[in-house]
Amino acid sequence: MTPANVLEQLQWTRVGHNGFNKQIPLAPNSMATTGTRATASNSLPADVIVLDANGEDVIVAVPIPLDYDLESDLLDVSLVVRLESGTSLTVQPTAVTAGSILGATVLDLANVGTFTPPTATLVNAALDMGYVQANLSGLNFRAGSFVFVNFAAASVTGSGIGHVVAGLITYRSTLVAFAEDNRGNADDDTSTNHLNS
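Above: the chain sequence. Below: its structure as tokens.
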């Protein structure tokens, strides 16, 4: 890692009185959708996910970072949504699925039954560029596991069309990446995966 890389990563770090919060931006092309995609308008330099019908989903795949602070267990996944045209619609996180890699190829997935969906976020002309948040704190996710968050559109009125222009993962960081029983810094450690050893 070069000094330039360190400085680049530090711009996403937020220092607080009880730890470090970090944000990882996600582009729309890193998310799946049952809706459609279109070229962004208003000079946004990206393709966007288009939500314009009840029940259309955005599925965000979130690998839990290796520097995730399990003791704090603070994690938030958000979509950045704006109203493109029409009157309004709502967007809400509805379900969370989690899994971990077992061995080389097995991915064990299960619904996270303790996740409580928040109130749906109204997306209308007053919401210039707002967050639709899924608070996943306190659900005991482990570094290196995978979380899939399902966001659904509903209550579309007046031909409302919402554009998902980006996503964000916010989490509490330890600032170093390691597994509890293997920090990966031994002189004879040549592995590249310190989670499954």
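The domain at 14-172 is CATH 2.60.120.260 (Jelly Rolls).
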